[in-house]
Prior knowledge:
heterodimer; A: 430 residues; mainly alpha; Arc Repressor Mutant, subunit A; Diphtheria Toxin Repressor, domain 2; 19 helices; 2% strand; B: alpha/beta; Rossmann fold; 10 helices; 9 strands
Amino acid sequence: MENFIDFFMLRDPNVAxxxxxxxxxxxxxAIVGTFTLLRKQxxxxxxxxxxxxxxxCLAFIIAQTKNPMILxxxxxxxxxxxxxxxxxxxxxxxxxxxxxxxxxxxVFYGLGIVLLTAIQQSGNAAQAGLDKFLFGKAAALVRDxxxxxxxxxxVLITIVFLxxxxxxxxVFDKDYALAKGLPVRRLEVLLSILTVSAIALGIQAVGVVLxxxxxxxxxxxxxxxxxxxxxxxxxxTVFAIxxxxxxxxxxxxxPRMPTGPxxxxxxxxFALGSIFLGRKKGLLARYLNQRFHxxxxxxxxxxxxxxHLGEADQNFEAFRSVDQMQERRFIPLPQLRRGxxxxxxxxxxxxxxxxxxxxxxxxxxxxxxxxIHRMWELYLTTHMNLPADHxxxxxxxxxxxITPEIEAELAKVLEGAEKDPHASPIxxxx
Amino acid sequence: xxxxxxxxxxxxxNLTVVYESKPALWNVDYTIPENxxxxxxxxxxxxxxxxxxxxxxxxxxxxxxxxxxGKEIDEVRQxxxxxxxxxxxxWDFPVNVxxxxxxxxxxxxxxxxxxxxADKEIAMEAIKKVQLEPFVKRQISQLSGGQQQRVFIAxxxxxxxxxxxxxxxxxxxxxxxENSIMSLLKEMNANGKTILVVHHDLQSVKDYFxxxxxxxxxxxxxxxxxxxxxxxxxxxxxGGKLNxxxxxxxxxxxxxxxxxxx
Lengths: 430, 262
């Protein structure tokens, strides 16, 4: 607990630099990553982040220093070369996009590991900690790092903000942007530069291996909560910063815990959680929606059964037992009980001992379903030329779908026909 | 039958376009007068969309040129609104109808300019014209095909152009939407706009268009509909390929031979 307060109150100035640095890195990655995701370049992000490793190593070999600015420049250049290589291979050779990605990723990364091993065995004392580029070193950020990252990410975010409108148009509809005369090629190059830079920045926190997650996961999670690009940018930034802080806190308190994997794990929780719970197309939302419709169909079917029974002996108010209802149409007992109970609560059914009867509202609703069912059957035979014995099943499903507007239109098209194809009367409203 | 006119608003001069060493347009050459409702008709893969893209400068011709209002396209872009094929974009993109139509107001010459209140009003007017007001705030993937097509048309309307180029606006669109789009286009045409539509359904050609381009990689005919829309011309457009031409195309494609010297 003390740790927690110390960390988040930023009591230790070293912690303050770490927290500041992490916020900059994760925010820049999330904002740029939103566009990367929408451009469907998630995998390119992964390949580019691996392609950055040899650049970092070469920059160190040449400059013999771990100055963050110099390493960033090396990283950006080699990330950019990786991107060019991917584009060249997939555009100009017979290789398909996925092969080009796989090739660039493994070749660059392999080269990076070779260089890294060579540096580590060279006996140069300054190299200590360079291997942190594999999995990140967020908890070890110092003042110089934080200031460099702040400037770098400020520039990235400002560029996105300035070019927000044209970026949005180019990513959504490139042809239209071209037709309008926007400098599409240059805007795309700018977006790619932003991506490579955000990756070069982000590997300081999570390392090259996991960088793609920092770029893509926040935006992917945000997409499940909103249908607006601006909100998506805000949400992905919030997700990324939160994950960054939590991950850093864990590696700060528990010794020998790597930062990058923790940040990415937290992000994965956010992303998975969004996939399940997300308001827009989340799995839970879909499941609830389906269940809602199933329950509606169950209730409407029960009302129908009672209405049918009422029609048979011209007594709509009679109380019927569960057995009578099941005889008319089989609905499994647990469902029948559950549905009837709900209908009683909603006031559509009246219960007396173990028997149920339609309330006036229930009768009207049951009648409405039957009316739609019979009108639909008639419509299928008269307007879609289906034989009368083919239409019942279709109507069983469609009766739950048709809205009052379509019902009115159906009534108009059928011109007040009195009977359905099976000679049952259509119960019009008086 | 290719009818050439003086002072054309649209002119293709000997235009040839090659896609991955396969000719998509071959020596297309026509002139079209102002204020017509023009149909572009031909079989699948006959270069209709490519011709539109060449007009807008989206594809580079191997030879020849396209002029609009007698000028290079780059000088007159503001006056021309392009409506791409509906399936050319990912409709899952996080924008709603209003935002998508508002894109018609973005200006190419000032990327940093934010949309103004006047822009928003114009976008709203365009949405009303295509009868999408009830869906203004809806995310574009939750629209029907016909509604999505109308979003594209509203975006073009918001541009307030003089000429409209529409690529298959009736593909995958219900009959009611097709009718309402068509009457909108006729109304715009009556107000002096030039409108060019890539179209598939031969039955409606006579009712829809007063000028016709018949294409099959090469241009078969260009002229007033009543003169061009004949059995003979349609036979030439749809009745098999020109044997020698298609054999030459095949050789070019296989050998990767350049179609023009230089």
